[in-house]
Amino acid sequence: MHSNKLHIGELEELILLLIMMLQEDAYGLAIRKNLHEKANRKVTIGAVHGTLNRLEKKGFTTSEYSGATEIRGGRRKRVFSITAAGKKVLMASQDVKVNLWKQIPEMALK
Length: 110
Description:
Layout: H1 10-22, H2 28-39, H3 45-57, E1 61-65, E2 78-82, H4 84-102
Antiparallel strand pairs: 1-2
Helix pairs in contact: 1-2, 1-3, 2-3
């Protein structure tokens, strides 16, 4: 039996990858925008925040609030970063997929 902590869904995986890509700009709206632009995935901001909260609860991300800005009407952004456990689960997910791709007979791909 495998631990659930070692498995992530596709949206979780995409969001973790975007957190690594966006770095200090990894907050809800930026992640949603990049999901659409770079992964062709349209998701609600609620789905993004739900996934971010789940990833943080699993220990794959941490978050902190940035300083309030005038542009945001004095509201602060919740910026996410990936943890060592998050990087580990991403690598494990990549390894599984690469391993499966390598096992597909070449003629099946034609």
